Amino acid sequence: EPLSARAEGLADPIATPEEADRARAWEGGLLRVFSAKEAAFKALYPRVGAYFGFHALEVTLSDGGFAARLARPLGAVAEGTTVAGGQAVAQGFVVSAVVLRGGMWRE
Fold it and tell me: What is the C-alpha separation between 8 and 27, in angstroms, rounded?
């Protein structure tokens, strides 16, 4: 995702007010939250089997990555489940990735 000033307009649709406040402390923070939630959605959707919106995940940014925590249960995935992702910001772009390990889905 390209970094841009338009990212501020993303705050309400993609982030809770608390998430948005935390994100603003980071370069491109709101866009990083958006990118993190998109990556987490793409990783979780096959397991969940249903569409879910941005507010179903709460993202906490860190140096080089993020944690995305489920704010509500999604299918067989429990509320509070957290997936970790990697993230890079370079040359005006944000790249995010999530890799799910099979062991985290033991039931």
Answer: 12
pLDDT at residue 11 in the model: 80
Q: How crowded is residue 43: how many other Cβ atoms within 10 Å of its Cβ? A: 17
pLDDT digits (tens, 9 = 90+) for 31-83: 999 999 999 999 999 888 889 999 999 999 999 999 999 999 998 889 999 99
- Rounded to whole angstroms, the Cα distance separating 35 from 89 reads 11
CA 36 from centre of chain: 3
Q: How many residues are given for the chain?
A: 107
Contacts of 92 (CB under 8 A, 6+ apart): 2, 3
C-alpha to C-alpha distance for 9 and 41, rounded to whole angstroms = 21
Identify the burial level of 55 via C-beta atoms within 10 angstroms of its C-beta, where 0-12 means exposed, 13-18 middle and 19 or more buried: middle
- Bridge partners of 68, per DSSP, are 59, 83
